[in-house]
Amino acid sequence: MAETSRLGEGVRAYWLIAGMWIRSAMTYRTSFVVTMCGNLLMTGLDFVGILLMFSQVDSLGGWGLPEIAFLYGLSVTAFGIADLVLGSMDVLGSRIRDGSFDILLVRPAPVLAQIGADRFAVRRLGRITQGVVVLGWALTSVHVDWSAAKVLLVPVMVVSGAAIFCAVFVAGAAFQIFAQDASEVQNAFTYGGTTLLQYPPTVFGKDFVRGVTFVLPLAFVNWVPASYVLGRPYPLDLPRWAAFTPPLVAVACAALAGLAWRAGLGSYRSTGS
Question: Where do the domains of the chain lie?
Answer without folding.
Answer: 2-267
